[in-house]
Structure of Imidazolonepropionase:
Amino acid sequence: MNTYKLIGPFKQVLPMTGLPLNGALKDEQLNVLEGKVGILLQGETIAKTGDFDTLLNESKIIGAEVVELDGDFVALPGFIDSHTHICSSGSRARDYAFRNSGKTYLEMAELGGGIWYTVTQTRNASQKELEAGIAERASRHLSEGVTTIETKSGYGLTVDEELKMLRAIQAVNEKHAADLVSTCLAAHMHPKGFEGSKAEYLEQIGSKLFPILKEENLASRIDIFVESGAFSPQEAKPYLEKAKAMGFSITIHADQFSTGGSQLAVEVGAVSADHLEASTDKEVEILAKSNTIATALPGATLGLGCAYTPARKLLNAGACLAIASDWNPGSAPMGDLLMQAAVLGSAEKLSNAEVLAGITVRAAAALELTDRGTLAEGALADLAIFPCNNYQEILYQQGKLKPAMVYKKGQKI
Ligand SMILES: [Zn+2]
C-alpha cells in the first residue's frame, strides 16, 4: 500500500496550508501553486506537491505510477462536512410545502409532520434500511468532493433506537469509501411518550447509552439541541459535563432561533457551536474569544428561509468559522455543501479563502481531525479535482461546477 502515484499536471493546486485557524482571511493569504503542478501520493497519504516535471523525473527513479491529466484542472483537499443528519428515513416534502405556504411549526406537527415524523420513520426502518440511506447520501457527497462526513444520530430518542442509528453509521463507515465521523445526538428533543422530565431523559441517556457508546466505540462526540422547545442551557449543562467527564467531545446545536446555546458551548469547552443564526454581537464576541469553532449551516437558512449565521462578524471578531450542510430531511434537504458554502460566501461577503477554509482545514478542526483538510505532506490523499483553470471558478459557479475526479485515501472514486 506504500506505492507511489503522481497525479498531474494541474493548473493550480491549493494545499490550504499555512492559514491561521482563526479570523478573517484574504485570498492573498492562500498558498496557490501554479503553472504545471504535480501531487505525489504515497499509499493513502500526500508525499509532496510541486513542479510536475521535477516530480515526474523523481517518479521514474522511485517507480511511481503516473496519472497524467489532459486538460485544465485545479486540485483542493477533499471537502469535510462537519454537521449532517444523513442517517434518517422518510421525506418531509409535505412539510416543506406546508411551511412555504405559511403553516406554522405547530400546525405542521398537528398534521403529523415535523421532526416527530422523521423519528417515527427512522424508528420504523431496520438498521439495514438506514445503512442503505446513509450509503446513498454518502456516495452523492463523495462524488461532489466531500470525503469526510460527520453523521449524527438523534431520530431514535430511546437507548435502543439511538444504538440502531449509531450502529448503522458505524457499519457504513466500515465499508464505504467516504469517512463517516459519528456523533450521538440522543438529546435532539424530549421524546413523546417518555415518562419523565427532560432532566430524567438526559440522565437516562447519560447513564445507559454513554457507556455502550464507549464499549462499542460507536461515537466519541456528544451533541445536544439547546433551544426553547428542546433543552435549556440549564438542562443541557449537567448532561454535557457528564459526557465530558467520560471523555467525549462536545458539540452543540446553538442559537438557531434563540440565544443561550453558544454561551453554554464556550462554558463547557465544546469543540463547536453550530447554527448561530440568532447570535447577536454578544454571542459573536463570546465565541471569538473562545476555542469553540463557529459552524455556519447555510443549508438550514435556505431550507427555512431565515437569517444566515453572521459569518462576516464572526470572522472579523476573530472566530474560527466552519461551514457545513446540516443535510437533514426537515430543514436542509438539499445536501449540497459546495453550493451552500458558495451562497453563504455571497450573502455574507466572505473571501474565497474563508469559504474554502470553512469546508476544508477549519472543518477538519471542528471534528478535531489533524490528518486532513490540507494537502500537507503526510495528510490523507483526499482530493477534489475541478475541471477549470483557476480556483476562483469554483465558488463563482456557485456549486454548479462539480469535481471531475475525487480521490479518497489515494484511490480514485
Ligand atoms: Zn443539525
